[in-house]
Design a protein that fits this description.
three-stranded antiparallel β-sheet, 2 domains, 5 strands, single chain, mainly alpha, 7 helices
């Protein structure tokens, strides 16, 4: 029997599902998902860097071969698949450390980390911090991890270079190459305050008013002291 594919229920269902997937991808805020992708990779690399390089973990097969041996060996804990997998499970909780801002150079919305890892100053001006924004970033993080967890584990385990480019740009297509040039944290320029101070022009009227105010306060204090002295003499 010939099937009319134009009206077949399964065909219509498949077309509907494909349309939903395409609409879902189109509805994704690329700046949000790009920031989530980059933040995950940055936080993962930082977590790996904090592990003692001397620590190792036993991996391999516990199966005993005909000779009675097991294929076990030691690898550094930091980039072991076990450690990376465990770290990924909680990495999205780190998204609460980020706030939304607008990049001054490109005008694009992006997310920046709000805490310093080395004690240096961080610029926190022009940021938008709310529960809804952080929930959105965490959701984007969870979606990214769910879709690309295996790729992420493999690249981190093998200490691949340019992971951001390989996943965020090429695989997920959340970012453009130029997006990767924007830092995830705004470092305060140590000379910025000095420059701002140097650029401030003195206000003569303000200085004059301040001098008048100072003179008035001194006169009031003198008069008050004279009054107290007279009262003391009368009591004697």
């Amino acid at each position: 029997m010939e099937i009319n594919w134009l009206v077949h229920p399964l065909y219509l269902l498949l077309a509907f599902l494909l349309l939903c997937v395409e609409l879902g991808e189109a509805a994704r805020d690329k700046s949000l998902y790009c920031s989530a992708c980059r933040a995950v990779i940055d936080e993962m690399n930082y977590a790996i860097s904090k592990v003692d390089p001397k620590k190792t973990i036993q991996v391999g097969s516990f199966r005993v071969d005909p000779s009675g041996n097991q294929d076990l060996y030691q690898v550094p804990l930091a980039r072991s698949e076990t450690h990376i997998t465990e770290t990924i499970e909680t990495i999205c909780s780190k998204m609460s450390d980020y706030a939304q801002t607008v990049d001054k150079a490109t005008g694009k919305q992006r997310f920046v980390r709000m805490n310093s890892r080395d004690g240096g100053g961080i610029e926190l001006s022009n940021i938008n911090l709310s529960g809804d924004i952080q929930k959105g970033l965490k959701f984007a993080c969870e979606s990214f991890v769910e879709d690309y967890e295996e790729d992420l584990i493999t690249l981190l385990r093998d200490d691949e270079a340019e992971i951001e480019t390989k996943i965020c740009v090429q695989e997920a297509e959340y970012c453009e190459e130029e997006d990767l040039l924007i830092p995830l944290v705004n470092i305060v320029d140590p000379n910025s305050n000095k420059e701002d101070t140097d650029n401030i022009k003195p206000n003569e009227e303000t200085e004059y008013n301040n001098e008048e105010s100072t003179d008035k306060n001194l006169n009031d204090a003198t008069e008050q002291g004279d009054t107290l002295n007279e009262d003391a003499k009368e009591e004697l």
